[in-house]
Amino acid sequence: MQVTLTREEMTFAAFGGVTRQINALERRRADQFQPRDYWGTHSLACMAEAAVAKWKDRYWTPFYDADHPPQSPDFKGIEIRSSPDPRRPLTLRERDKPKANSAFILVITNPPVFDLKGWLWGHEAMADEYWQDSNPPPCWFVPQNALHPIGDRT
Questions:
Q1: Beta pairing partners, 90
Q2: Model-level pTM greater than 0.90?
Q3: Using DSSP, how many helices (H) and how many strands (E) does the chain show?
Q4: Helix 7-26 crosses helix 38-56 at what angle (to 10 degrees)?
Q5: For residue 5, what are the CA distances in angstroms to 23, 46, 53?
Q6: Which residues contact 27 (CB under 8 A, 6 or more apart)?
Q7: How many separate domains does the chain show?
Q8: Which residue range forms the structural domain that includes residue 52?
Q9: Which of 44, 126, 133, 152 has the largest CB neighbor count within 10 A?
């Protein structure tokens, strides 16, 4: 399922990504992934969230407030994972264990087009067969061909 964002939608999302990076700097939060363009990563992640919101026809904002702290799901019960790499698997980390009952959607980012590749429940993605600890940090890596199709109960 491909979703195309308008210039205005991408601008709004990119502004949210920059805001998230500034918030991380203010909190002295360590960068989670090495090596990365953190400013760009946050902006693309926000665009991926905006694409899912557009597909679901739901209002979305990239900004945090008291009701939506940084650790809250991107949408109620839905987590968005994104990458510009078209071969990237759905990736979950140890810190995702409390979200085992959430749906995780993989989005491949190639602005203005965003390819919603598929989804899995967290508990499905956290199966032993997907666990890899050979590349720090240890993660569950779910190949795209193991994902449920978009629209199938998401």
A1: 142
A2: no
A3: 3, 7
A4: 130
A5: 25, 12, 11
A6: none
A7: 1
A8: 2-146
A9: 44
Residue from 48, 50, 5, 40 nearest 20 by CA = 40
Residues 98-109 have pLDDT tens digits of: 999 999 999 999
Cα separation, 61 vs 29, in Å, equals: 22
- Which amino acid type is present at position 77? G
- Whether 154 is covered by a domain: the verdict is no
pLDDT tens, residue by residue, 36-73: 777 888 899 999 999 999 999 888 877 765 555 555 55
Selection from 98, 104, 108, 85 nearest residue 142 by Cα? 104
3-13 pLDDT per residue, tens: 999 999 999 99
- Tokens at residue 117, please? 């590749």
State whether residue 81 is helix, strand or coil.
strand
